[in-house]
């Protein structure tokens, strides 16, 4: 094991949290396929359960393979700790459930991935947690929707599929004086955006996407910045500042002080993950560790290819508009320049002339690009959101999310750019 604090992403992804197996000298992180762990003694077990020391109890809560992934992603994002979960959907739900109970609310951007929008609108609502959707173009909308029961703000750094960069600092600055943290989904912009540098308190990833990079495994992760003062407004954050009946009446902000600023993530691990149980498989964690090792290389290629495809589409007669930070103008460009310091990524969308039928003809005509419900793969992907990923939204909600009937979403991969553009070009010709 190594405790060296690397700062360069390329090195973090290969070395943080692991050096070798002390028993076998194995360099690769082992897949710890175990449900449980031998305690050294009755006192050792009692100390672990009492949180007087940290260690492995049960793989639903923690696992040595998962721990390496957690350490590396936390270091990459500049956070203090992370928590692996079974999917990106579990990450988004748990990040909210960790702070909210029946009768509470959050204010969320209306520009969200369709699955997240539906989860917030329906599933969390069924649990008594209200989600108030607002247009992120004007950050003041978040404050206008806030009341004494608002526990968090929520947005996507690069909203899927509008791809207009979220105003991270502007929203975070509005919430912080009120004790309201900003939670952001950074799935679409790993390495190219550092939300914690701009005031976000918590972030999540669907590790299924760019972190995995190869479309093999499902997973999610929650990362705690360690920078938000949860104690400053105890009435605003009762989950962290009042006795928790689910864990022996512990007050999380007090209990963690000997361990560092990890109240949020430790509560998520020892109550939400423990009790709801959407744990990441150690095998999947192993796969994400492999993907993470080349993330810095892939994101450069995704960004280079994404920019060239967007520039091609902007000038194509079949295309009415292109949504991509690298060709944005006005306020969207200003926010892209402010928050995307490492490239513009591989995700984009475009409005094809001819509406929904032209959009369907386009995806049906692709020969190399895959027609799948995923993003962030090394391969180039395409989908028609209005009829698939966002089909559960009504017309008004679709427009609020930036999805029109002829809108096509592309996840540009790392194939040779000539081959990517050739396939898109021939599909556009057939869609006309």
Q: Number of helical runs?
A: 16
Order of helices and strands: HHHEHEHEHEHEEEHHHHHEHEHEEHEH
Instruction: Name the CATH architecture of the largest domain.
Output: 3-Layer(aba) Sandwich
How many structural domains in the coordinates?
2
Radius of gyration: 22 Å
The strand line-up of the biggest sheet is 1-7-6-5-4-2-3
The profile of the biggest β sheet is: 7 strands, mixed
Low-confidence stretches: none
Give the full name of the CATH homologous superfamily of the largest domain: Type I PLP-dependent aspartate aminotransferase-like (Major domain)
Q: Structural class, judged by helices and strands?
A: alpha/beta
What would you call the shape? Answer: globular
CATH uppermost class of the largest domain: Alpha Beta
Strand content: 5-15%
Q: State the helicity in percent bands.
A: 25-40%
CATH-assigned fold name of the largest domain: Aspartate Aminotransferase, domain 2
Number of strands: 12
Mean pLDDT across residues: 94
Distance between the termini: 58 Å
Molecular structure report:
With 432 residues, this protein is an alpha/beta fold. The chain folds into 2 domains: 9-290, Type I PLP-dependent aspartate aminotransferase-like (Major domain) (Aspartate Aminotransferase, domain 2), CATH 3.40.640.10; 295-431, Alpha-Beta Complex (Aspartate Aminotransferase, domain 1), CATH 3.90.1150.10. It has 16 helices and 12 strands. The strands form 2 sheets. A 7-stranded mixed beta sheet has the order 1-7-6-5-4-2-3, sandwiched between helices. Helix 3 packs parallel to helix 11 (282-293) and helix 14 crosses helix 16 (417-431). The protein is globular, with a radius of gyration of 22 Å.
